[in-house]
2-oxoisovalerate dehydrogenase subunit alpha
Amino acid sequence: MSFRYTSRILRLQRGLGVQTSRNGCRVATNAPVWQHCRAVASTANAEKVLFPGALNSEFTSTLDFLQPSQTQAISTYRVMNQYGEIIDKDIGVETTDEEALDLYKNMVKLSIMDLLMFEAQRQGRLSFYMVSAGEEGIAIGSASALSPADVIFCQYRETGVYMQRGFTLSQFMNQLFANAKDHGLGRNMPVHYGSKELNIHTISSTLATQIPHAAGAAYALKMQNMWSPETEPRIAVCYFGEGAASEGDFHAALNIAATRQVPCIFICRNNGYAISTPTSDQYRGDGIASRGAGYGIATLRVDGNDIFAVRRATKEARRLALHDGGRPVLIEMMAYRVGHHSTSDDSFAYRQRVEVEDWKRRDNPITRLRKWLEDNALWDEDKEKALRSVTRKEVLRAFEIAEKEKKPSIKNAFEGVWEELTEEQKMHVEELKDILTRYPKEYDVEQYEGGISGLDELLAQKKQT
């Protein structure tokens, strides 16, 4: 290995907070003392462990197993109780009245859109949908505390993140109908949104794959932040449910993020159920937050029904994620999934209806914020009725327009994989055109933008090449 190349590697390691000691151990410069490796063996009278795998642990002659069930559960951070009352009035909410009103209006808009789209699916006008009932505060609250430049990786119940970042009703509807104006050109199933302009990666159906993607992106952002100090530093933010935390991708991602010390916030929505599986059947530990400590990650558990707590926690997590070159943070947002898992699910087959109705009535992020707004003379019943009426009309209008749009051009079934069509694909195009031409009554191509002419465009390209 050349001297020049070795020097570049050493500079990169120092920039990423990694140093190589005299004994050859590579350690993060900001790592806690118990993570620093040793090259010498334990002495006879040593009082602490010197093994490389567990450093500075005191020796003991008492045989005492750690019993997680006997330890105190991790506390849950909140700013506002379920009655809309601020617990520590000296600190307050750190949110202006205007911001609080905007957050509330977005949560109401999200809940109305969810209700209408769920009904539309039941009417057969949409093929699939997932609601965010009970979790609106997590998505909208956390998104409001991030920088627009931060890179987001969502799961499938983060519609509020898109809405808070500026994704329009038209964009939502176009994707749900997979019409010609859908940015994904109809190639993905409903609620799998994506927006390059908003720095949000397209949602994938495969559970938990976005978690290691976020860890890798955060590592790239760490280098970018280091080598481009003139630009605003960015972080990666990853959302997932507690069910996804049972996947191997979760553990691999957190371990990579911790050992590489990347600027990433992992936000777990613990809503009590992974489809039909309650948390009691998913794990025996203290939720997902307890796993963060095991990976050496700064961790916090938050009341997800308290949007002020969500915002403050996310702001602080972002500050920590960028501190001293970067570090990962895990936030477990506690909530209750009021709605069904999706339109393909009937949650009353595995939980009591009274349980759901109790959570609806007793506590949810929308009613809790509304109580605070009313107590501060910022909201009343008349404003509530007006907001819901106007919002419902806006959603229905966007829905009706998107429903009438044509489907994307048929050519999109072949484009977008290879830079140029392969010979085999060209044969498929010719065969498809032949079938559509010979059986026009069986295949309505007029519902697609350009009709059969889209295939003619591809065949014209073939002749040119």
Remarks:
- The longest strand covers residues 264-270.
- DSSP finds 14 helices and twelve strands in the chain.
- The chain has three domains: 3-61, 74-404, 410-464.
- The first helix runs from residue 3 to 15.
